[in-house]
Structure formats: structure tokens, C-alpha cells
Design a protein that fits this description.
Helices cover about 60% and strands about 20% of the residues.
Length: about 220
Amino acid sequence: MVEGGETKANQLINKFVISLTDGKILGFVTDINVEVEGDQFYFILKMKEVENLGKGQSMFSSERKLKIRPSDIVNVGPDVIILGNGKVPPLREIERLNQIAEEYNSLVRELEAKERLIEKLKEENYELTKKLDEIQRELRKLQVMKEDFEHLKEQLVRQEGQLEMAKDYIRLLEGLRHDIDKIKDDVDKLLQTQLEEVVRAIINEELNARGLKKTSFI
């Protein structure tokens, strides 16, 4: 007898056997053996069948043997053994499935929470995208203003250069005007001197013609 099977088998003696799929009591276990076939073992339940159950005169009748697999057992309680005949999973399996279902529901709730968070992040991202577009438009405006400013700055530099050239030209003209005034004065003096000399010469010629004395000045 397999050690694990023997330990479990001892828990099945002196208990009623109930078929969950048939909905009836199959009997009362009085003895049990374990049969091994390859890597699989079976329980051979020796039990007394129950007759007239529910009629007030229930009693044990003939004995029978029932061969079951460990997977046929749904649960083992203090008084009964519940069989599912391979159609109902063991209670531990049901509990494990319930646990899996709870974990699945928990994951679903977490997923829903994450989806809500994603939707919120999408909305925030949409708002941020709108703000980013506005900022980019403002940046483009500022870039245009900067380019205009640079253009105006270049024009101002050119105008400043032209202004300096104009100032230099004005200073040159002022210098020329001073020279022109000096030349004018010199010309006026020269003309005055020449005029005096011409007038004197004419007068002297006239006086000479009349036999008068020449003059040295008018």
C-alpha cells in the first residue's frame, strides 16, 4: 500500500459515502484497501448498503465494494465522504478555483482602476498637448518678433552708420565753409586791392594827361 494513500484511506473508514451526482447515500464504509495500477492508486471501499432510508426503518443490508480514484472524492468530513464521480472537482480544487476567481476579480478591479487612471492620464495628456501647442504658437510668435527685432537692429545699425557718415560730411562741409569764407575774404581783399590799383592807374593817367601830379592814394 502506498504511504500517502494509506494515510488518506484511514480517514475514510466508518463513514457514510454520498454520491453528489446521484444525490443518494451509497453505503457505510467498514473497511478499505488501496490498489495500485502503474503510477495511479485507487481506493477499494468495502461498505454496507443502507436500505429504507427515510422510511423510519433504515438498516444496513448486503455489503458491496466500490472502486474510486482519489480525484473522485470531493470532500471528507467527520461523518461522510462526498463523491463527485469525476464530474465534480475536489473541495480543495473548488477552493483553489475560488481563490483563483478572487485573484482574477482582484486583477480585474486593478485593471479597471488602471484603465480609469489611463483615461485620466489621457485627458491630462490632451490638456498638456493643447497647452504645448499654445506654447509652441507663442514661441513661433516670439521667434518672428525676434527676427523682426534683429532686422530692425540691423536697420538701426545701418542708419547709425549713415548718421555718422552724415555727421562727418557735415563736419567736412563746416570745414569747407570756413575755408570758403577765408578764400572769399582773400578774394575780396584781392579784388579791393586790384580795384584800387586800377582806379589809381586811371586817375594817374588822367592827371598825367592834364599835367597834374600823380597821387599815391585816392
